[in-house]
Amino acid sequence: MAAEPPYFEEARAAGRLIVAESPKFELDAYIANYRGVTRLNRLHHIGITSTQLYLEALKSGVAEAKRGKDVHKYQTLVSALYQIVPDDPQATLDLVWTDRTTKEVKAETDRLELELKGYKNNLIKESIRMGCEDLGRHYHLIGDLPNAIKAYSKERDSVQTPAHMAIMNLHLMHVAIDQNNWLGVQSHVHKLRNLTQTPTEAERAQPKLCAAMGLAQMATGNYRDAAMSLLATDPRMLQARLDDPNDPDAYNEVVTPNDIAVYGGLCALASMNRNELQIHVLGNSAFRNYLELEPHIRRAISFFVSSKYSACLTILESYKSDYLLDIYLHRHVNEIYYRIRSKAIVQYFIPFSCVTLAALATAFNTDETTIERTLVNMIENGTLDARIDLEERVLLAQQIDHRRQVHEEALAMAKEYERTVQLRLLRMEIIHAGLEVKVPKGQDDLSMSAINNARGNARGNASNMAGDIFKGMEGRGKGKGLRSGGMFSRRD
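The structure corresponding to this sequence follows.
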């Protein structure tokens, strides 16, 4: 086995993510499912993160970048390759290609801007819209995302149909995803959902909108909403041809159907209980088509629903390196795994009053140190109502005095009942004293100010007469022989 380059040791010491285990996927087959900007971003992330695939990923990324027009991304990939393997032939910038591509990009930019200026002079809205769209697409391809946003946004003044408005928002949503602007992504999704579209157009856009919304919600840590969005994704995305950039159902410039299955399954495991997993995931006929692409996710969910937590966690741990190499998922893997393990521990501990840490470690396929640290975190944040006996190495459930709890509930109910009866007696005395204010018949048009004045006077009279009322109540109580031990006895 080759020695690990010093770059990864320094990165690990600096606290950056480094994955030493080999993933289960083949890089060529994995990256072939993507196209566009996300293809380069994924290769770059794998190259600077994986100690097993860094050379293959970065060299593939450099070659892929030279087939495009994004000079800045090419320079970034070459710089990363130079930091890790400075002696590699591809770790040196190709200045000839860089200069030529920079000139070509500038010439293309000038041409598109000149054409757009001519369209604006002719005042032809459709031509202006198409010119803005071509310019935005050009900026997106060369990696100039801020100018791409500006160009696409200028289409708004020339849009004439809901279909053109939908196309513009889809472009803006795509650029926002590449910018990691998740609030912008959610905003464009809501705009698209509120557009008036034909049923065919709405059905075609539905998978992309659900995928983008789920991705944005997962990125912001809202795992339950992300799961619900991803679980609602229409399976028509499965029929798309990933190698055809003109296929309207393909969305592999952002995610693939496999990603939908993984993201949706993990977010559901992290945020739903067993009954919800059975109903919304395993019982979801539409999402079942996605789960067939990732059968290990389906098995993990099935094991969790069946309370086989050790088998579920074992499957997830075996694929952890794959998820850490995903550009969108790697920031959330540890949190998602922690939530899944926490829910499993809570469910496992419910039947017991005490359990040893060794038994817990065996049940969850881990060591005692890890399980102890997990239990401490759960107890501190209130997830688990228990305490740890470190001397005996035992987890103890909190003992609840049910007798005392019943007594407290009974006393609280008696006090509430007494208060309610006193208020009702007070109301009866107020009505008996003639202090109730009623609107006379035929005066329904009485102004609000008059009604408020009447109510104010009634409250004043009630406050003045309150003492007399209670004294009368006490006097009648004495006269009728109420016993002092009764519930409504007079209090000195």
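Confidence is low (pLDDT under 50) at residues 469-492.
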